[in-house]
Amino acid sequence: MNPIYIGIDIAKTSFALAIPQRQGGFLDYTLTNNQAGFSQLLNLLPTDCHCVMEASGPYYLPLALFLTQHDRLLSVVNPLVVRRFSQMRLRRTKTDKADARLLSQFGTNQTPPRWQAPTTLMSQLTQLQTLLEQYIKQRTALHNQRESFTHSGVPNPVLEQSLQKSLDHLDEQIQALEKQLDQLATSAYPSLYANLRSIPGVGTKTALCLLVLTQGFSRFESAKQLVSFVGLAPRIFESGSSVKGKAHICKLGNSRIRQLLYMASMQAKKANPACAALYDRLVESGKPKLVALIAVAHKLVRQCFAVASQGVKFDPKAALSLAS
To answer: What is the C-alpha separation between 176 and 36, in angstroms, rounded?
Structure first.
């Protein structure tokens, strides 16, 4: 018998629950997003159920962990995928109850895979990586602000001193977080972490970001899935004989890893034989250098997946023979 897909729409302090009935319609509930509400949820869930919720910031995680600890089937899905499903159904209503019902319908229609709870160490890595990215964004914003003030033609020593102090503090925090991330990754994934960094062009920052995003390369079954996840898959825009738009990458997923991979590609086109051959071939064929660099970044992701799935260090000769 197919499971009953239960939709759960998470908010900061509460969550909406939609339990489909076999004779039609839903039973709707609103429970508090805390341990008391979690216990109430267990009493309401049918035995043959499969819960579906979105990865909505940090709010879903306590309930997701609670359900897995109590051996309940659960899927945590990308909000963008659910949004596209909603648009496909021409849905206009946007309420917590309606969203919970939509998640139930999404589960029944799409049968999403079961969610695997991250380890405590992976959760720590994820939190540190998230904070690191936030600090980097803040530093970039302050740099841009200082640049704007500098070109205003009105010098302000107090302003400059305050900005420099903030930038120095952020630099210290970023260095401390990067050091902590490196230590945790070395402890949790010593071989995998070293194998990723054996790829010419893949440095510590890129390897760390990939480790966290992929949860130790456990989230994906193929390199193609990983390429799509980081947003480097090509998007073709053609229709019939008259519409032929320019192809470009999807740019879905985490923008930080794309930035790191782009920077890594500039080193890889010099030091990584397979990437260098690809870059030279594309440039010689008339492709713009930016397009060639993106192709190199794409290849780097595939090389990372290969060493991660095979559990070996990077072999330049083998990679070059596969590319030829």
So the answer is: 38
304 close to 202: Cβ distance less than 8 angstroms: yes
Nearest to 56 by CA among 32, 74, 80: 80
Segments of 14-142 assigned E as strands = 14-20, 26-32, 49-54, 73-77
DSSP 101: H
Domain ranges of the chain: 4-110, 125-187, 204-323
pLDDT tens for 142-185 read 999 999 888 888 878 898 899 999 999 999 999 999 999 999 99
Residue type for 217, please?
A: F
What is the pLDDT confidence band of residue 246, given thresholds at 50, 70 and 90?
Answer: very low
The full DSSP string for 234-282 is: EE--EETTTEEPPPEE---S-HHHHHHHHHHHHHHHHH-HHHHHHHHHH
Mean pLDDT of the chain: 88
Give the C-alpha separation, 174 to 134, whole Å.
10
- Number of Cβ atoms within 10 Å of the Cβ of 323: 15
Cα-based torsion angle of the residue sequence 267, 268, 273, 274 in order, rounded to the nearest 10 degrees: -160
Least confident range from 26-35, 152-161, 315-324: namely 315-324
pLDDT of 254 reads 67
| pTM of the full structure | 0.73
**Cβ distance 239 to 146 under 8 Å?**
no
User: What is d(CA 82, CA 84) in angstroms, rounded to the nearest whole number?
Assistant: 5
Contact between 308 and 220 under an 8 Å Cβ cutoff? The reply is no
Residue 94 is predicted with a pLDDT of 83
The full length of the chain comes to 324
The conformation of residue 217, written as its DSSP 8-state character, comes to T
Site of tokens 């083998």: 318
Fold of 4-110: Nucleotidyltransferase; domain 5 (3.30.420)
Contact criterion met (CB below 8 Å) for 4 and 87? no
Beta bridge partners of 49: 4
